[in-house]
Write a structure and sequence with these properties.
Blueprint: H1 7-10, H2 19-24, H3 29-41, H4 50-63, E1 67-73, E2 77-84, E3 90-92, H5 98-101, E4 108-110, H6 123-126, E5 133-140, E6 146-154, H7 163-195, H8 205-217, E7 226-233, H9 236-243, H10 245-262, E8 267-273, E9 276-281, H11 287-301, E10 305-307, E11 310-312, E12 316-323, H12 330-346, E13 352-354, H13 357-373, E14 382-391, E15 397-408, E16 412-414, H14 416-425, H15 429-444, E17 452-456, H16 459-464, H17 467-478, E18 485-489, H18 492-495, H19 498-510, E19 514-520, H20 527-532, E20 537-540, H21 542-545, H22 552-568, E21 571-575, H23 580-589, E22 593-595, E23 603-604
Parallel strand pairs: 12-13, 15-17, 17-18, 18-19, 19-20, 20-21, 21-22
Antiparallel strand pairs: 1-2, 1-6, 2-3, 4-5, 5-6, 7-9, 7-12, 8-9, 10-11, 14-15, 14-22, 14-23, 15-16
Length: 617
Amino acid sequence: MIENLTEGQERAEYGTFDASLLSGGLIARSEADRLDALSDLNIMDTPPDERFDRVVRLATAYFGMPVCKITLVGKDRNWYKACAGTRETDAPRSKAICSYAILSNEPLVVPDLTEHPRFRTYPAVTGNGKFRFYAGAPITLENGIRVGSFCLMDTKPHPEFGEEQIRFLTDLAQIVAHELILHRDVERAGANREERDALTGLLNAVSIERELQIAIDHPMADAQGMAVLYVDIDDFGEVNNDYGKHAGDLLLKATARRLEDLAGQDLAIGRISGDKFLVMVKSVQSAAKLHRLVRQVQQLLSAPVHIGEGFIHPTVSIGVALGPPSDGKATTFQRHASWAIQEAKSLGINQLKFFSEKEYERNQDDLRLATDLRNAIANNELELYYQPFVDLKNGRVVGYEALLRWHHPEKGMIMPSKFIPIAEQTRQISALGTWALNRACEDAMSWNENLFVSVNLSPLQFKRQDVTEVISTALKSSGLPGHRLEIEITENALIDDFEAVNDKLQAISALGVTVTLDDFGTGYCNLNYLASLKIDKLKIDKAFIGSVERDDRTRTIVAMIANLSRYLNTSVVAEGVELHTQHEIVRMIGCDIGQGFLYGKPLPKQQQDANRVYSFA
């Protein structure tokens, strides 16, 4: 029994326990380890727990003491996990007797606190309670670290407190330690479930992002840099469709196991979602070594996977981002790698793409434009410009092509070559095309009744819209006769479903609308298509017209197209005429209509001269 603390006992393995240590925290390494062990329990300030309350009730009944506490000794305060006989929940460590009970493996027993030179001035002894007795057994974990005490207190002294009572007090402290360890292990298991992907056992998205942030904040000493690899199984959806979800899950597990074989001190693996995995390279020694690692990952994951009675032969695409990013954020790092994998997937299967800041910024600009484009119609930012078509026989304007322009409030004029591809990618092309068609028909109604208007339709409009209904509605709402409207399509509109597109062209022609095949000569339209399609005009691409006066082969091709059109009973439009010599050649060859800067540049409706006649004397 320890009736008094000697100077040697105060210097037990946590160092001399004086007032300065109590107020500022013990500085010995063992105290730091003790506090880490206490924190690892994840028990401080948790709600009441019957397991611990039961032990306290048992102690008060057995010992006949008014106060019993399970005390956990923190850095600056002692907290009571369970207690009887007091409403206090914690106390400053500097004036708590339990702070001394953890200095030795043996229980601390003080028969009369008023006679002890250290404790007799403590608030617990001089205050309202005026305690006289204290007995506390250290709560010791399996690694020997003492995190608190199981203590008894009474308002009267107990000089008779003997060995049997000390032994039972120690047993109760061990029971509490066991429950604390059990609590910790359950918490760890729960935390592990929260940190791990349920299917593969890899770190989940939240956990790998946290690990990535830690690696950014605390880079490895020999690291030249870091890298993030986004790994995506190609055509994974087809595996689920062809073999079933169970087979897909087996493939994901096999992929995870193979990636785990690579994991080491400088690599961490996680599953982001679905068939997407993240490989964090904490230390990049050189570009060559990183490339070898990436190729190793591709080869490893492309090996056949045995599933059921057969094999699946997967391939993966990988996006790579080098870092850390300038803002030091894991989310930015992941965003760069995510962009890279999207670019890789756009190239096909089994592809590799490294993040490019320049390409990424350009892509981000496009995304911002896509957002702005959604409001362009409502904000009256769109306008149609009109470029004239000229009859090459007499130089008279016969119609205009409607060309879309976007007056961006910050970027100024944006040409369709910039925003039309964005509109197609973001599924806004149908709304833009419908707006342009309606506006063109309305504008044409104010022109001379002999003039037509030509409007371009995107191949995606043919695929996603009932274009015949859209055109019919535009004609009815504007009052424009069908013969004054031309629709221009490119050969790309024919590629996916020729029969369906041809049916739509037949229906459009039934409305009296002229159909023009735009950019003719640059695609892969075969003669069978031309014979079957309801096409009224062929528009020769400006790439041919631009060199027709200096290249005999080009001139021959243009002449062949003009002759072909006569056999097909279609008109020929020469696009991109800029010089008088080009005009003379296309007219001599037999083109019917010319279009280009020589005849007029695209201008807003209010600036066009609908009655102009061009003379080339």
